[in-house]
């Protein structure tokens, strides 16, 4: 009986772990985020802009531009040293990228820009977030904060920052995707 119970527990744990690992490699977050922005833009076309700023060197890796374009939005790559001078009213930042610039390049322009954006010094404010979630996430996060997200494209987590009329319009738009900023 003990052997059968141990086998059942091991099988259940393995199945749960495998399911959570497979789910986090999907592109569902990118699709949800794009759908949410597209719906908000259609609901308030004068308030929600059609162009979304993203970190320049992440456009291919995080595969966000394709779903945005399908929703009628444009992806505008922003160089690390140009975030604070951008005309974009919306910026979508992958969580892994946030972790990487804060940890690996804390003195760099992207880390400075993120710190100033998060502090509310730039007119941007966080309006919504998508987070990765999987069974052993806390263990992985303790090993290295960058392991908190999936590194192989997929459920990487995103934070949406907006300013001007876009911020309140997006805060009003629920769309059922992501979680509102706290």
Keywords, separated by commas or semicolons:
182 residues, 4-stranded antiparallel sheet, two-stranded parallel sheet, 6 strands, globular
Describe the 3D structure:
The structure is a single chain. Strands 3-5-4-6 form a four-stranded antiparallel β-sheet. It has a two-stranded parallel sheet with strand order 1-2. The mean pLDDT is 84. It is an alpha+beta fold and 182 residues long. The chain has helices spanning 2-23, 28-43, 65-70, 95-104, 109-118, 137-143, 166-172; strands at 51-55, 74-78, 90-94, 125-130, 158-162, 179-180. The relative contact order is 0.19. It has seven helices and six strands, in the order ααβαββααβαβαβ.
In short:
The protein is α+β, with helices and mostly antiparallel strands.
